Amino acid sequence: MQLLQNILQHVQVLSTHGSLEVPVQGIVFDSRQVREGSLFVAVRGVQADGHAFMPKAEEAHAAAIVCEELPQELKPGMTYVQVKDSAEALGQMASAFYGHPSKKLQLVGVTGTNGKTTSVTLLHKLFRELGYHVGMISTVQNQIDEEVIPSTHTTPDAVKLNELLAQMVKAGCTHAFMEVSSHAMVQRRVAGITFAGGVFTNITHDHLDYHGSFEEYIKAKKSFFDMLPKNAFALVNADDKRGPIMVQNTKASAHFYALRKMVEFKGRLIDNTIQGLHLEVNGQEIWAKLIGAFNAYNLLGAYGVAVLLGEDPTESLTVLSSLSSAAGRFDYVVSDAQITGIVDYAHTPDALENVLQTIQQIRNPNQKVITLVGCGGNRDAAKRPVMADIACRLSDQVILTSDNPRFEEPQAILEDMQKGVKPLDFKKTLSVLDRKEAIKTAVMLAQPNDIILVAGKGHETYQEIKGVKYDFDDKQILSEMFRQLGK
Ligand SMILES: CC(=O)N[C@H]1[C@@H](OP(=O)(O)OP(=O)(O)OC[C@H]2O[C@@H](n3ccc(=O)[nH]c3=O)[C@H](O)[C@@H]2O)O[C@H](CO)[C@@H](O)[C@@H]1O[C@H](C)C(=O)N[C@@H](C)C(=O)N[C@H](CCC(=O)O)C(=O)O
Ligand SMILES: Nc1ncnc2c1ncn2[C@@H]1O[C@H](COP(=O)(O)OP(=O)(O)OP(=O)(O)O)[C@@H](O)[C@H]1O
Ligand SMILES: N[C@H](CCC[C@H](N)C(=O)O)C(=O)O
Ligand SMILES: [Mg+2]
């Protein structure tokens, strides 16, 4: 419990009506969750405008309402606070309500199109090995040391985020590593959060449906570095064309990592095999367990963070070299017939291209590559034909299928993908709408020693169709098909 006036400290308030000394039991931004004593914040969303639900919050006996526009009639006895930006205010108030937990941790945020989950997972494992109590907030799961807290978003909403950070502080964590998505930046989910550092992995095609254009998507990522404080670090992949833009206006100190440029954290890829990566990092050679050239970037970024947080470079590198990746990232099973099945969360053109390039680099010339891929519904439709084309270009056989159709027609998504298949590739491409049938088909087509890539869903254990999440686990189904078909 906190008094309203105490949590308004950093909020840009335009007007107040009623007492600010009301006790607040909790902060909510969904009228359906208002309980007696809740503070209801009216936020404008994509589907709806929270302001329309202020009467519901009044009926449910909210303690007070924070909004950008006051209702026409103010309810007697109720407190209203008019603010400039409700989403920003929500973040500031959530931080104050939970005692500013981000200030009590060394909190590092990772942003970029691909590599966020892998990076925070590596950092969490590294700092655990170095002996700290560590928190993690990621797409796959949130963690406090080894305790797993299920995750619903890549970056949780402001209230959930501060609640999680407060739990970490309470558990004695000194460090926390979190993913910062572009949606979170636009929706101000991290407003009021104090970061010790920020990392930029890369930016390529994704989420154009939400941001409208690539320029707007870049701006959303850059806004994270614009909000970092002066004493924080901004660690940027200098090989990405947009790396320098990210730190153009930051107050934080800029640092760079790269494989192709001479920078502070400099890596060199010596070899890339199914056993892992042979790398040189700032003059030291390591054999890392992670597979795929793109993981050289994730390792370098994690190394840079460790050094910038004051850890010993050699010890950090040694630990990093022993770490495995996050669930569903180049996760592979080898069947009895020596067919290699790879499950990977590649759901963007760049990720798919990188994973397939890696497979091309590590395979023997006699191993055929069969790629199974689908695209999510109610997400960027422009990437669909591009991903189908990449799959065809880098595979011997392609099976186009469904991912999470959400509220779209699976057949329509498939047809968007088919538009990317060039006439010369028609004969190597099959379309099997049912994802389980598609996996079965891939296994039936595979000969001993072949490679099957099942892309797009990685760690996900469900398939989301019309608002219902049905059990679905690519890796489990793949193993089941190997057994069922005697492969
Ligand atoms: C597009 C998007 O990001 N939507 C997020 C957004 O919902 P919204 O803007 O649609 O909300 P809305 O339905 O318009 O409602 C507006 C306001 O009215 C309120 N409301 C609504 C109904 C009601 O009866 N009463 C009420 O008070 C809502 O609580 C909300 O505050 O705010 C919600 C609360 O924080 C999020 O749960 C929701 O995430 C949806 C479920 C989602 O799928 N988001 C994805 C795209 C996302 O955020 N992904 C990124 C990762 C991307 C990546 O890394 O590749 C992530 O960080 O997870
Ligand atoms: N540094 C990287 N550069 C390019 N591709 C990568 C990189 N790291 C991972 N990938 C590819 O992208 C996929 C997603 O990786 P990861 O889950 O780490 O990214 P993410 O940024 O967390 O994604 P999301 O935005 O969906 O949460 C991986 O399965 C792999 O195919
Ligand atoms: N964080 C990503 C996940 C995409 C995963 C893919 N399986 C899909 O459903 O499109 C998003 O929300 O766009
Ligand atoms: Mg992620």
TrEMBL record:
Q: What is its EC number?
A: 6.3.2.13
Q: Which UniProt keywords are listed? A: ATP-binding, Cell cycle, Cell division, Cell shape, Cell wall biogenesis/degradation, Cytoplasm, Ligase, Magnesium, Nucleotide-binding, Peptidoglycan synthesis
The residues that the entry says bind meso-2,6-diaminopimelate are: 379, 403-406, 456, 460
One GO BP annotation is: cell division
Which pathway does it serve?
Cell wall biogenesis; peptidoglycan biosynthesis
MF GO annotations: ATP binding; magnesium ion binding; UDP-N-acetylmuramoylalanyl-D-glutamate-2,6-diaminopimelate ligase activity
The cofactors named for this UniProt entry are:
Mg(2+)
Describe how it is modified after translation. Carboxylation is probably crucial for Mg(2+) binding and, consequently, for the gamma-phosphate positioning of ATP.
Q: Where is the Mur ligase central domain?
A: 110-306
Residues holding ATP = 112-118
Q: Where in the cell is the protein located?
A: Cytoplasm
- Identify the residue span(s) of motif Meso-diaminopimelate recognition motif: 403-406
Give residue numbers for the modification (N6-carboxylysine).
Answer: 221
Which intervals hold domain Mur ligase N-terminal catalytic? Answer: 24-98
May I ask which residue range the UniProt record assigns to the signal sequence? none
What this chain does, per the record?
Catalyzes the addition of meso-diaminopimelic acid to the nucleotide precursor UDP-N-acetylmuramoyl-L-alanyl-D-glutamate (UMAG) in the biosynthesis of bacterial cell-wall peptidoglycan.
The record, for HAMAP family, names: MurE (MF_00208)
Entry-linked PANTHER family:
MUR LIGASE FAMILY MEMBER, UDP-N-ACETYLMURAMOYL-L-ALANYL-D-GLUTAMATE--2,6-DIAMINOPIMELATE LIGASE MURE HOMOLOG, CHLOROPLASTIC
Q: Which family does it belong to?
A: Belongs to the MurCDEF family. MurE subfamily.
What is the protein named?
UDP-N-acetylmuramoyl-L-alanyl-D-glutamate--2,6-diaminopimelate ligase
